[in-house]
Amino acid sequence: MAVCGIIAEFDPLHAGHCRLFAEARERLGAGSGIVIAMSGNFTQRGGPAVMDRFARAEAAVRSGADLVLELPLPFALSSAEGFAAGGVRALAATGVCTHLAFGSECGDLARLQTLADAACMPGFDTQLRAALKSGGRSYAAAHEAALKALAGPDAELLKCANNALGFSYLKALNKAGIALTPLTLKREGAGHREMDPAADAPSSSLIRTLLAVGDHEQACALMAPAMAEVFAREERAGRAPVRLGDAGERFCLAVLRGMREADFARLGAGGEGLSHRLHAAARACSSVSDFLDRAATRRYPRARIRRLLAWACLGLEPSDLPDGIPYLRLLAASKRGRALLSEMRSRAAVPILSKTADAKSLSIPARALFEKEQRANERYALLFPDLAESLPSRLFAVRPYIEEEAEP
Domain range holding 256? Predict the structure, then answer.
């Protein structure tokens, strides 16, 4: 049986994601499986997901996915390259995935593969360093210039967000030597940051913006039906929407004010005076947005600074980024997914965790990472609208969503 892997955040899940499930299954056959490597409670943007990982995973399964596994936190809070590397390794570690599917604006696998191959050439890093040294370019602009030198004008494809992420997946497959067959499906509808609610398959950015301003009705109308139902349930329970809010901002500022320049350097921000810039911004800012404005530069954009801030607030350090996938954490499974999970028990390259107690059998380094993730999840829960829902005893009791067999 063909099994298609997808790497995603689903924050929140919308019609475009459902289309990806359906088209991937159409390409591979009705009996194929869909396995997701999904970000947990914190996303690649450097902030909290709008809804808990188990709830988002349930919505994914109810929308057509079969198995949802959590991408370890350090990968989820990494650059696009780190996010992609973690995702492809997680899918490969299942032992059951045969394909990797992703959406792209161009829908042309051959052109993206040519760019990924060029980025893995021995001369690419030299080209990139030269581009970074010339003209004060941003990293993205320097990367495009280096690729243009080796692969021609198609490098401009990477100005589109989904093309760029697909390129990162292909490059990660190349570098790790992972034998997943890539499929790209042409992305329809709104662009990554497009804010038109009338567009076909509106963007996740628009839905998050509507939630942030309190327009939950319109936001839910743009979500996938299952996502809207799960969100409404979580909202009634006081667990959604999750946002930083005043309390979260004050916590972030408290962390920043307590950091020395050497602490920023330990986060991997020591180069080119960045740790000094971050420390100065932390001492002068009065909000998270103010900190980002003061710290961000063309070379170090806001997204990277947000991720550094998230690492600091969650107690992560570069040494927490594992060389490989230490374990696979189950978040949700359909009926077909239960069969895949059974197969994984004998074929997966790493332990599969279905509940918190399973972590006792992990190696010492893997258990240390798991415990850091647990502490991060407890901090995430403190952002729930109802703090009564954030008690550690409740979080410990949450189980993966498992689709049951229909009653005869």
Answer: 245-320
Instruction: Tell me, yes or no, whether 44 lies in a domain.
Output: yes
The verdict on 100 and 193 lying in the same domain is yes
Sequence-distant (6+) residues with CB within 8 A of 405 are 335
Q: Are residues 18 and 60 in the same domain?
A: yes
pLDDT tens per residue across span 340-395: 999 999 999 999 999 999 999 999 999 999 999 999 999 999 999 999 999 998 99
**Among candidate residues 308, 251, 261, 314, the one with its CA nearest the CA of residue 283:** 261
User: 48 and 377 in contact (C-beta within 8 Å)?
Assistant: no
* Digit-coded pLDDT (tens) for 85-135: 999 999 999 999 999 999 999 999 999 999 999 999 998 999 998 888 886
Give how many domains the chain has, as a whole number. 2
Q: What angle do CA 180, 186, 190 make, to 5 degrees?
A: 130
Q: Is residue 370 within 8 Å of residue 328, measured between CB atoms?
A: no
CATH number at residue 194: 3.40.50.620
Q: 181 and 57, same structural domain?
A: yes
pTM exceeding 0.90:
yes
- 325: phi then psi, degrees, rounded to nearest 5: -90, 115
Residues 232 and 250 in one domain: no
Same domain as 169, residue 41: yes
Residue 331 placed within a domain = no
